[in-house]
Amino acid sequence: MRLKRAKAYKKQMAVYVHSFKFKAPFQTLVDADIVIHCYNIKYNILKGLSSTVQGEIKPMITQCCMEQLYKTNDEKLIALGKKFERRRCNHKPAIDADRCIESVTNIDGENKHRYVVATQSERLRKQLRKIPGVPLIYMNPGVMVMEMISKASETHRDQIESAKLTTGLNRTGADADDASAEPQRKRRKVKEPNPLSVKKKHTVKPPTNQGDDDKKPQRRKRGKRKPGDSASQGPEPPAAAATASPTSPSDTATTDSAAIANANEKSAPADDA
Ligand SMILES: [Zn+2]
Residue ranges of the UTP23 sensor motif region domain (predicted)? Predict the structure, then answer.
């Protein structure tokens, strides 16, 4: 594929993705004629379709079109047709390919299943151009071609774009709706539990915790240290006193330890003297 055409197709597919919610793998519906055409000229239809839509495809064929391939009695052609996933159309007996494909593509004026349609029927393509958001592909004799975006599709895209500009990004377009609706719900979910939990923490936990933090460790330290201090360890009491000194209860501790130290110092020289 020439670079220019590849770029044009990429641009077109981007419109289908952004404005019509197409997603890879792109469901690509073929008619029997394009399969036969490609088979006859030994053109790799699957590869061609994938490179035309510039992405992974999910190749599909309706029961009616498959029926058409069976009628050829060409085993290789039938085998090629079987590579496409069968799209159930439930037409019994099989109907005309154009009507069949249109019936599965045009659902109440919309391309509901987001099909890319590859057909050799000019008549069918003309019908599908009226439906917004139907990428159309055909073989122009040895070259696979994607049609320009139809006027119906352009109008629809413009409506979406203008709606985005006028009413804000959050409220327009199917994509925007989905994107905006979910985060809002999530935010509400997050907001509701948070205030409750925060209130509980503020009202109940902090005072008790702080009280515990302030009192319990210090008490424990004092309780443990006091006997330890007086009994054996020399270097620890001054350090504990230095850290605990700003608080009032610790002052007593410092005075106690200081008093003990003073007493020791006094008693020692007194003994010497
Ligand atoms: Zn059918």
Answer: 185-201
